[in-house]
Amino acid sequence: MREQIKRQLQYDFGQSFDLIVVPAVVCGHDALYAYLAGLSDRNLLEQGLLIPLAAAPCCAIDTQTLAGNARSSAPLKALADIAEAEQAIANGEVVLWVEDAFFSFLLPQFDKRAVAEPPTSAVIKGPREGFGEDIGQNVTLLRRRVKDKCLVVKHLTVGRVTHTAVAVCFLSTIADSHVVDEVVRRIEAIDIDGVVDSAYVGQLITDNPNSIFTQFSTAEKPDIVTAKILEGRVAVLVDGSPMVITLPCLLIEGFQDSEDYYRGNKRTTFLRVIRLIGILLAVLLPAAYVAVQEYHYQVLPLKFLVTVVNATNGVPFSPTIEMFIVLILFEILNEASVRMPKYVGMALSIVGAVVLGETAVNAGLLSSPAVLVMALSAIGLYTTPEHIGSLGLLRFVFLVMAGLFGFVGLLICTLVMVCYVVTLTNYGAAYAGPIAPFVAVDAKDTFVKASLDKMTTRPFSIPNRNHVRMRRRDKR
User: Fold this and answer.
1) Helix or strand (DSSP H, E) at 43
2) Mean pLDDT, to the nearest integer, of 25-40?
3) How far is 376 from 383, CA to CA, in rounded Å?
4) Domain spans, the chain
């Protein structure tokens, strides 16, 4: 029977070389251990299970007997059949077969990335811990910050082939139960062969998956996720991904940064206004430049108009085509610099920005104002990294409308975009809140940030069960 189980396991795993099947004796009975090399600690297996269980006296086999004779504190559980045993092996557990029964021990051994500052969220002030790819480690980082029994972690599995672990984390005393139930329901309804990153889950559980605007927030730092959980949001952690999803998501989150809450409120307000100006430049500046060139040149002061005309004289393309070419070139350079190795990408950026741009202007193919407008737009785009994708697409839409209809097209496009954003919802929350609809009590943390002692309530724009977060005391 032992040889039959061994052959069955080897056959079902396709004769994989990393499947280790070890015949053994357990409490006087023929047995075998099966595990995947690299996922289980062989030393713990030998010292904690193989040797002590082989030396144990003959007795009946059950979980209590195995736990009593083993020199290991590894979690032990009984398995129903060979199919469940094979799934346990694939999960990295050690499976023991003895007396026609299967048992599993968790003896994990695999390398994990050390907790370090994430490259996408560097800060001058504030915590520098970042999530890794191991979901257990990430849950632990949250537990270290929220030391309360009300932090609930629900374990789910997604993917018919990958069987990826997913953890839904929330505060039971704060998070809205309907939002939690809906997030869990949508994750359980996912029917896909595999999940490689948290972005897969995020795209499959959003209210508006086809929207150009980001419908779920991502964070790579425990302090950010903790702050959002404290506001009543739900965090979704996916094994193998350092990016944690938080829901519901609001548009205003793209203008907020974790460091905003570690500095003075006046400085934070100033920087948020700068970010707003940055995205307005990113989206509207190329379109406004084209509209002025094509239809409304009379709005420019005479001296400035002469300068622009002299700079664009001799360019073979219309302003719309010229700006379109410049933006496409920027997107190509940006994509190439990201895909290339780090040091080659830096050199490529310098070549593209300086050499290529200067040569194109000197050759008369592009005008210097167009290159300057593109540069300002690109810089403004990166003031809100959360919305780079959507703003980059909107920039082309606004450019086409301005080239066709001038400022009228620009106004129409702006109104359509505003109306569209206002109609979006996200797990019961208005995506444009607290701006539209305007929630006065939440205005303390929008483009203007109030001091910490005035932020006594959680956002009313997000469904939650307890809006009071701080009780003010008289200062003496």
Assistant:
1) helix 42-45
2) 84
3) 11
4) 2-105, 135-258, 262-423
| In 51-147, alpha helices (H) | 51-55, 63-69, 82-90, 135-145
End-to-end CA distance of the chain: 80
- The structure tokens 């990430």 sit at 138
Average pLDDT, the chain: 86
Picking from 133, 395, 82, the residue whose alpha carbon sits closest to that of residue 243 is: 133
Three-class SS state of 126: coil
Residue 12, Ramachandran bin (φ over 0: left; ψ between -120 and 50: alpha; else beta)? alpha
Residues 156 and 171: their CA atoms lie apart, in Å, by 17
What are 183's two structure tokens?
């997030």
Under 8 Å between Cβ of 166 and 201 = yes
* Alpha-carbon gap, residue 79 to 91, rounded angstroms: 13
Place of tokens 């620009």: 410
Please write the tens of the pLDDT for every residue from 379-426: 888 888 888 888 889 999 999 999 999 999 999 999 999 999 999 998
Could you tell me how far CA 327 lies from the centroid of its own chain?
27
Alpha carbon distance 473, 446 (integer Å):
25
Supply 243's token pair.
């990016």
Asked if residues 397 and 413 have their Cβ atoms less than 8 Å apart, the reply is yes
In whole angstroms, what is the distance from residue 398 CA to residue 409 CA? 8
At 13 the three-state DSSP class reads coil
Of residues 156 and 3, the one with the higher pLDDT is 156
Q: Are 155 and 177 in contact (CB under 8 A)?
A: no
pLDDT band, very low/low/confident/very high, at 37 (cuts 50, 70, 90): confident
CA distance 302 to 325: 27
